[in-house]
C-alpha cells in the first residue's frame, strides 16, 4: 500500500514538473517576442532582430527551470541531470550566436553605419567567424564534459584531417575570405568589374554579400552572380566605386540601318552640344564614339562633370540631351 502511494506521488510530481516546464517555455517565448517587438528600433542603439533571441532564451529559461526542479527530486536518474547540463551548454552557445545575428541586423539597418566604408564587411566577418568559433567551442566544451580521453582526441584529429582533405575548396574560400578582410579590394555596396579568367564576359555590378564561400554581385540585369573567394584573388578586379566620380559615361543603342555618314555627323554634333552644356567641364573635352559588336551598335559618350554640379542631375539631363539630339538628327 505504501509503495502504491509513493508511486502515485512520483507520477504526480513528474506530471506537475512537466506542466511547469511547458508553462515556463510558453510564457518566456511569448514575453520575448512581445519585448522584441516593443524594443525594435526604439532603443538608443536602434536594436533590430531581437525576435531571433526568443527561441534560445526560451530554451535557457526552460533548462534552468528543469535544473531547479531536478534539485527537489533526487529520485530521478542521474542521466537526466547530464542531459540538462549538455543542453544548457548548447543553449548558451546558441544564444551567443543569435546575439551576433542581432548585431548584424542592427548594423546593416543603421543609416549611420552604412555611410562608413568597411562596416558591412566587418560586421559580416564578425558574424561568420564568430558563429564558427561558437560551434567549435560548444563541441569542445561538450567533449570535455563527457570526459573525452586521449583516444577520442586522436580519433577526432584523424576525422578532422580527413574532412580537411575532402573540403579543400571550402577551406580555400574561407582562407581567401580572411585575406580579403585584412586587405579588402572592395566592400559591400561597391560597384566592381571582375574579369573572367576563361576569357568570357566580365561580371559587373554591385557587391551585395560577402560570405565564407563566395562574393555575390547583383548585375545590371538584376541577376545574382556568385564568385568563389578563392578565384577572386586570381581574377582581374576593378573597383569602379573608386574611380574619379567626376567622369560621366553614357551609352545609347542605335539602329544598324542608319547610314554611317549620318551617325558620324550625329557624333560630331552631340560632342558640340556636350561641350556647350553647363554641366560639362571646359577643361576636358567630351568624346562621342560608336562601339559594340555582338549585342549591336551603341553610341557612347564620355564627359567630365563641372565642379559644384550634382552628378545625378547631370546624368539625367545629359542623357536626355543626347537622346533627343540623336533622334532629331537621324530622322
In short:
The chain is α+β, with helices and mostly antiparallel strands. Helices cover 58% and strands 14% of the residues.
Question: How would you characterize this protein structure?
Answer:
A hairpin with an 8-residue loop joins strand 1 and strand 2 (203-210). The strands form 2 sheets. Strands 4-3-2-1-5 form a 5-stranded antiparallel β-sheet. Strands 6-8-7 form a 3-stranded antiparallel β-sheet, with helices on one face. It is 58% helix and 14% strand. It is of the alpha+beta class. Helix 1 packs antiparallel against helix 2 (54-72) and helix 9 (260-276) packs antiparallel against helix 10 (311-330). It is elongated and about 95 Å long.
Radius of gyration: 31 Å
Give me the number of helical elements.
10
User: Cα distance, first to last residue?
Assistant: 109 Å
Overall pLDDT metric: 76
Share of residues in helices: 55-70%
Note the run of SSEs as H and E.
HHHHHHHEEEEHEEHEEH
Strand line-up across the major sheet = 4-3-2-1-5
Strand content: 5-15%
Q: Using the alpha-carbon principal axes, give the shape.
A: elongated
Unreliable parts: 1-8
Number of strands: 8
- Largest pleated sheet: 5 strands, antiparallel
Structural class: alpha+beta
Amino acid at each position: 500500500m505504501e509503495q502504491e502511494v509513493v508511486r502515485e506521488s512520483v507520477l504526480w510530481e513528474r506530471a506537475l514538473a512537466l506542466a511547469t516546464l511547458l508553462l515556463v517555455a510558453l510564457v518566456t517565448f511569448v514575453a520575448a517576442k512581445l519585448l522584441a517587438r516593443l524594443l525594435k528600433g526604439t532603443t538608443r542603439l536602434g536594436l533590430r532582430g531581437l525576435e531571433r533571441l526568443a527561441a534560445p532564451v526560451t530554451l535557457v529559461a526552460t533548462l534552468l527551470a528543469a535544473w531547479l526542479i531536478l534539485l527537489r527530486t533526487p529520485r530521478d536518474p542521474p542521466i537526466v541531470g547530464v542531459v540538462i547540463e549538455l543542453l544548457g551548454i548548447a543553449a548558451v552557445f546558441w544564444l551567443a550566436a543569435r546575439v551576433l545575428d542581432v548585431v548584424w541586423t542592427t548594423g546593416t539597418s543603421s543609416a549611420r553605419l552604412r555611410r562608413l566604408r568597411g562596416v558591412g564587411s566587418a560586421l559580416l566577418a564578425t558574424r561568420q567567424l564568430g558563429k564558427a568559433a561558437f560551434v567549435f567551442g560548444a563541441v569542445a566544451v561538450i567533449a570535455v564534459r563527457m570526459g573525452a580521453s586521449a583516444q577520442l582526441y586522436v580519433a577526432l584529429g584523424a576525422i578532422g584531417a580527413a574532412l580537411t582533405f575532402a573540403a579543400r575548396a571550402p577551406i580555400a574560400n574561407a582562407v581567401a575570405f580572411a585575406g580579403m578582410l585584412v586587405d579588402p579590394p572592395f566592400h559591400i555596396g561597391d560597384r566592381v568589374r571582375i574579369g573572367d579568367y576563361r576569357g568570357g564576359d566580365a561580371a559587373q555590378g554591385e557587391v551585395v554579400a560577402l560570405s565564407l564561400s563566395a562574393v555575390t554581385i547583383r548585375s545590371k540585369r538584376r541577376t545574382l552572380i556568385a564568385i568563389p573567394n578563392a578565384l577572386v584573388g586570381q581574377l582581374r578586379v576593378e573597383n569602379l566605386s573608386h574611380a574619379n566620380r567626376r567622369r560621366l559615361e553614357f551609352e545609347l543603342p542605335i539602329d544598324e540601318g542608319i547610314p554611317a555618314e549620318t551617325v558620324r555627323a550625329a557624333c560630331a554634333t552631340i560632342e558640340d552640344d556636350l561641350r556647350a552644356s553647363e554641366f560639362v567641364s571646359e577643361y576636358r573635352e567630351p568624346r562621342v564614339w560608336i562601339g559594340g559588336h555582338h549585342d549591336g551598335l551603341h553610341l557612347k559618350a564620355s564627359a567630365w562633370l563641372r565642379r559644384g554640379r550634382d552628378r545625378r542631375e547631370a546624368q539625367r539631363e545629359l542623357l536626355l540631351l543626347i537622346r533627343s539630339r540623336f533622334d532629331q538628327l537621324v530622322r
